Amino acid sequence: MVDSTELANEIGSSAYYGGVVEEQAGGLDPARFTFGLARLASRLGVLLVENAGVSRITQRNGRFFLSTTKGKVKSKEVLLATNGYTTNLVNRVRQGIFPVGSYIII
Fold it and tell me: Which InterPro entries does the protein's record reference (predicted)?
């Protein structure tokens, strides 16, 4: 826990009464990060398909096969961007995902 003075020095604002500094954690703006990734991927020639829910991912002979609401996709690589409420789409990944609450005390 840090008091208001120490927190103001840490974040540059005197609007808060105190807080917790977690030096091994970080944060980012998810919208800016997502749009930045999309811009970079597009510049690199990646085909981006939006609103295509994935219902199944399988891997065979070094390739991934995805079933989506807009058809089937075959790829050498897959980027799984998810959250703590992901279904059992990829069981081996699901084991390491869990929801964490975020709280602000005013």
Answer: FAD-dep_OxRdtase (IPR006076), FAD/NAD-bd_sf (IPR036188)
Contacts of residue 34, defined as CB under 8 A and 6 or more positions apart, other chains included, come to 81
User: What residues are paired with 59 via a beta bridge?
Assistant: 64
Cβ atoms of 37 and 45 within 8 Å: the answer is no
Contact between 21 and 10 (Cβ < 8 Å): yes
Cβ neighbours of residue 81 under 8 Å, at least 6 residues apart? Answer: 34
22-57 pLDDT, tens digit each = 788 778 888 999 899 999 999 999 888 888 888 888
Q: Using DSSP bridges, classify how beta strands 2-3 and 18-19 pair: parallel, antiparallel or unpaired.
A: antiparallel
Residue 35 token pair: 């749009």
Strands of 71-75's sheet, edge to edge? Answer: 54-60, 63-68, 71-75
| pLDDT single digits (tens) 47-87 | 888 888 888 889 999 999 999 999 999 999 888 777 666 66
Decide if 80 contacts 64 (C-beta within 8 A).
Answer: no
